[in-house]
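Lecture 7 notes: from sequence to structure.
We start with the chain below.
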Amino acid sequence: MDIEKNIKLHNKIAKKYEATHTEIYNDIEQTRLVNDLEKSLSFLNKSSVNALDLGCGAGNLTNHLLNMGCHVIAADVSTGFLDLVKDKFSGRNISTFQLNGQDLNGIEDNSIDFIATYSVLHHIPDYIMTINEMIRVCAPGGIIYIDHEQNNEYWEPKSEYKEFQRNVSKINIKKFFELTNYIGKFKRIFNPRYANEGDIHVWEDDHIEWDKIDSMMLAADFQKVLQNDFLLYNSNYKDEVFNKYKDICSDMRVTAYQKNMDKRKPRIRLN
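Predicted structure tokens for the same chain:
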């Protein structure tokens, strides 16, 4: 199964994950992430927040949530990643939970104040089931936060985004001599979901159905409280090109939804 391949791969790369993901671990993306997390957490209006980092990986979200005063349940299918975050955040307000890649069995209904994912859904074979499970375990008044997934503009790019893609990357001579680059291209002939890193992106083309997620949340009595479409920065980008296009096109989305505390009181949805 694809999920088993991903578990094996992520156990192997856990300790070098941060070094290989320059699109995540750079100051611009981390600042953007912190701002959106803080905005979303502000809707809770609670002094003590129980947060679930769903697909915690190397602890990117976990780190920020801990710094914001949350108790964090760091959850992942990979024991390699769970061992890493245990060591990295030893002595802090954290517990770990091993996922089965299918549901959130073992987490009680209506028990989590803040449920967050970052660059995770496209690794899950049935991400719609995962969304339903997030809805199930979210506490009344709680937040579901979904970040770093490609938006509709990425799949239907306008001319400005196509120009951005053509001009933004620095020339990387080393890449031409990296064997993994060519192995990845060869394997994608037989499986287009194969990534250079070695994992399988189980949702073909990472095409998350945002309209479907919005409909699911509305049906479950959630209100959308945040949506931010943004242009993802990579340290391999030319800064002058990125700065030219960052306010006129986008390729990623973050959304946050809040569960209604009292169904008797209608809530106003954001546009």
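Points to note: The longest helix spans residues 27-42. The beta strands are 50-54, 71-76, 94-98, 112-118, 138-150, 222-230, 252-259.
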